[in-house]
Specification:
Elements: H1 2-16, E1 26-28, E2 36-38, E3 42-44, E4 53-60, H2 73-81, E5 85-86, E6 95-100, E7 103-110, E8 113-119
Antiparallel strand pairs: 1-2, 3-4, 4-8, 5-6, 6-7, 7-8
């Protein structure tokens, strides 16, 4: 009986962990209705907005970034499919910048966690 309980608990916990999967789809970020985030990501307390950041959101999701902060290619393609253009010259390591209709968004990927920022100005200024 004890082994069965441990097995059921293990299956339940494993089934509840949020893991990145392109097939699960995307939803709108809480800070910008036009910027996609994986549906399985869940919000955690964001960093404070300072300087050139007007809005911030922080998400947890297993598998969203590797140890070097590289996001899944499918996620980057989805961002562009939603109409965002990457500002490649502005990229700073794991931080990607995107522009759409005069808005600048920043995506900062880490292993199992990522931040989305709405910027107040162009990152190069």
């Amino acid at each position: 009986m004890k082994q069965l309980l441990v097995l059921l608990l293990t299956v339940f916990v494993a089934g509840c962990s949020n893991v990145y999967s392109h097939e699960d789809g995307y939803r709108m970020a809480i800070i910008n209705q036009g910027f996609p985030v994986p549906k399985e990501a869940y919000e955690v307390k964001p960093e404070d907005c300072v300087g050139e950041i007007s809005k911030a959101a922080k998400y947890k999701l297993k598998g969203i970034g590797d140890a070097d902060g590289n996001p899944p290619d499918e996620y980057l393609r989805t961002i562009e499919e939603w109409g965002w253009t990457e500002l490649v010259d502005e990229r700073r390591g794991s931080i990607h910048f995107y522009e759409k209709n005069g808005k600048i968004m920043s995506l900062n990927i880490h292993q199992n966690i990522f931040d989305v920022f709405e910027m107040t100005s162009d990152p190069s200024s």
